[in-house]
Amino acid sequence: EVQLVESGGGLVQPGGSLIVACAASGFTFSTYAMSWVRQAPGKGLEWVSVITGGSATTYYADSVKGRFTISRDNSKNTVYLQMNSLRAEDTAVYYCAKDSDGITGEFDYWGQGTLVTVSS
Amino acid sequence: QAGLTQPPSVSNVLRQTATLTCTGNSNNVGYQGAAWLQQHQGHPPKLLFYRNNNRPSGISERFSASRSGNTASLTITGLQPGDEADYFCSAWDTSLRVWVFGGGTKLTVL
After folding, report:
1. B90 touches chain A (CB under 8 A)
2. Which of B99, B105, B106 has the most A C-beta neighbours within 10 Å, making it the best mutation to test the interface with A?
3. B90: nearest CA in chain A?
4. Which one of A104, A114, B59, B107 has the fewest CB atoms closer than 10 angstroms to its CB?
5. What pLDDT band is residue B38 in, cutting at 50, 70 and 90?
6. What is the dihedral sign for C-alpha A66, B102, A22, A52?
């Protein structure tokens, strides 16, 4: 059974940094791209970033480019999102999602999400 | 990065049919189609349809998906109270190299 478990969310001040992680199990982690998708309170889904299985390729939404960095450790079956220069508008539940195929595959499994709140 | 266009809300009567739409352009929906996700209040999204309009295992046959040009559609027949949820479409934009989502449609079963 595929499981994705996010961790690391919390309250951070504007301009601060935070790392969220997603531990995966139930599939061959290194062969699938992984994404982060966020959802602000009461709003829709916003894709944040994707990384290929071997970490060779990453893409970012314009809203986070230059501030967020996605990475993965295949030995630990974990994907990370390093978030710097955080803004109030980054407040959201951050979901990690498994891509069904390569970097353009659908998000076929989702974690429960971790809440990041940016506020003073 | 412009997203996909979905009507904010759709409603219909119990046991009737609802059709939700998702409009993009030739670089996203028109390129490889759109996936559909269902999200119940307080829960993470769940994949309903792959971009090729195939259902993952466990998804009811009351749900079907199709595409015509740059518009994808999700049809739900025999509406049930449990179908009340937010429905999102998503597609890879091959020009921008980003994933784009629709704003979501809130389905109400009357």
Report:
1. yes
2. B99
3. A106
4. B59
5. very high
6. negative
| Cα dist from A29 to A2, A25, A48, B12, B103, whole Å | 10, 7, 20, 41, 30
The pLDDT tens digits of the residues spanning A10-52 come to 999 999 999 999 999 999 999 999 999 999 999 999 999 999 9
Q: Which of B45, B88, B98 sits opposite A61 (nearest CB)?
A: B98
Model confidence band, residue B1 (pLDDT cutoffs 50, 70, 90)? low
- Find out whether B5 and B102 touch, Cβ atoms under 8 Å: yes
Q: Which of residues 30-59 of A touch B (CB under 8 A)?
A: 35, 37, 44-47, 50, 59
Coil/strand/helix, residue A31: helix
Amino acid B49 reads F
Residue A102 pLDDT: 80
